[in-house]
């Protein structure tokens, strides 16, 4: 019985040691990769503003006809 208990404790120590070593290595590699990505990542490019000049009415700030069309579309969608 004593032999079985000592084998169990040995297996537990080796298992927990392996898991601890693996997780420590994983944290170290992840930290290193994060630092490398930040160092070599290209600078983000500014995004262009979306073009709002799809139609002359929108570019001029709207018109009564455009407001009527949008209102009709909203009423149609809600009904």
Automatic annotation (TrEMBL):
Entry's Gene Ontology molecular function annotations: decarboxylation-driven active transmembrane transporter activity; oxaloacetate decarboxylase activity; sodium ion transmembrane transporter activity
Membrane-spanning intervals of the chain: 12-33
Species for this entry: Neptunomonas japonica JAMM 1380
Entry's EC annotation: 7.2.4.2
Gene Ontology biological-process entries: sodium ion export across plasma membrane
Homology family: Belongs to the OadG family.
Protein name: Probable oxaloacetate decarboxylase gamma chain
Membrane disposition: Single-pass membrane protein
The entry's keywords: Cell membrane, Ion transport, Lyase, Membrane, Sodium, Sodium transport, Translocase, Transmembrane, Transmembrane helix, Transport
Subcellular location: Cell membrane
Entry cofactors: Na(+)
Protein task: Catalyzes the decarboxylation of oxaloacetate coupled to Na(+) translocation.
Subunit structure as annotated in this protein's UniProt entry: Heterotrimer of an alpha, a beta and a gamma subunit.
Catalytic activity: oxaloacetate + 2 Na(+)(in) + H(+) = pyruvate + 2 Na(+)(out) + CO2
Gene that specifies this protein: oadG
Record-level GO cellular component terms: plasma membrane
Database matches in Pfam families: OAD_gamma
């Amino acid at each position: 019985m004593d032999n079985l208990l000592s084998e169990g404790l040995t297996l537990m120590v080796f298992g927990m040691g392996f898991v601890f070593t693996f997780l420590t290595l994983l944290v170290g590699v992840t930290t290193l990769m994060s630092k490398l990505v930040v160092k070599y990542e290209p600078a983000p490019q500014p995004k262009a503003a979306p073009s709002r000049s799809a139609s002359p009415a929108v570019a001029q700030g709207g018109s009564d006809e455009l407001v009527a069309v949008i209102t009709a579309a909203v009423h149609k969608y809600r009904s």
